[in-house]
Structures
1.
Amino acid sequence: MTVEPISQLARLSVSLPAELLAQLDAMVAERDLPSRSQMIAELIRHELAEHSEGRDGAILAGTITLIYRAESGRVRQALAQAQGSFLKEVISSQHVFLEDDQSLEVLLVQGPSERLHMLCDELRRIRGVHQIRLVTTRALLPPLHAHGRGGKTAQVGGAA
């Protein structure tokens, strides 16, 4: 059996809130990993795989789930403004208030994969957004509204 050499390592310094660090340490302990670095590398690999998934121009349907701090309406206003730039893709949204001034919002979305990822990237840049997750499928929503003569239907989410 041949042992491959360890790839060159690079150091990274990260500042985290104390509570988040405590949660990370608990996860490392639960998974019986030798270091935080191993856990962080796994999390980064997962996010990189998810980031590249579905960026092939396919029309997708899915949800975007956000958890954010609802401080003084600034975050909600920024989220609404971002969503306004993606009216064809955002079909509906559901919002609930959580404990400790946090909010949970779920967006039902459909459209080209690039547009859905662009929407997520724009939402992610909003200060106060703590978590965001896009879950998609290639199965599409049926047309929601019929219009015109001849029974043609309007497509949702920019689907042609």
Note: The longest helix spans residues 36-52.
2.
Amino acid sequence: MQRRDDRYGGPGGGEGPRRTGKREHDPAAGVIGEEVRGARPAEIPGRLCAVAVRLVGVNGATVSLYSGGMPVQLCASDPLAGHLTELQATLGDGPCLAAAEAGAAVFAQDLAGAADSGRWPFFAQEATAAGIRAAYALPLGGEDAGAGPEIAECVGTLDLYRREPGALGARELRTARLMAGVMTVALMALPHEEDGALDPGLWLSGLATDHDEIYQATGMIMAQLGVGADEAMARLRGRAFADDRTAVDVARDVVAQRTRFDSD
């Protein structure tokens, strides 16, 4: 039977760590706990992005929520990582979207190599030009999340970027999956504040605004061109890529009527 990681470009070969009846303590769990101790819910994703870079040994990390085929970035460890995730949202392609759609980890071990550059040619070209050679996308929720079977739906991804090509080592992969599981739980089971239950909408409202603008712009493009939703989204993404902008930026111009598609 083929391993899931092999099918998605992940580390292959070997049996990996053997499970025993005794649960081993993972020191990374203690570091994660200290990092988020005392943090407000809105601060937790950003702190987890930062600690993921240190613990997994990568150069950048982002977390995106995923809905209706469009990932919306929640946090980034640095501007380059944020740009690469936004680029995938604009292109509608890349490891981030592949992981969200499959609900399984997707690893690009060498974006300059034939296999990975063939899967995502535009993303691979931009990433390698920026000095990034490997990308590892893990689902938040879904079969591979490691957060428990009750969180069956993939709600987003943890995306990790590294300047050197290669697979994640066994310990790095275990830590990355732990980070994805912790992030999933943080998003799906937000803690309660002393004065009552925390409304996730309060700290995700900015993301909802981005989503609303994308879908409003898509509807306007549909009306302008007389095309379906998929074609309108493709036109929006194509304009953003051609203008070297993000899809959200172009959507805002469409909504504000600074950009029209029926005049092209």
Note: Residues 204-255 form a domain with the Arc Repressor Mutant, subunit A fold (CATH 1.10.10).
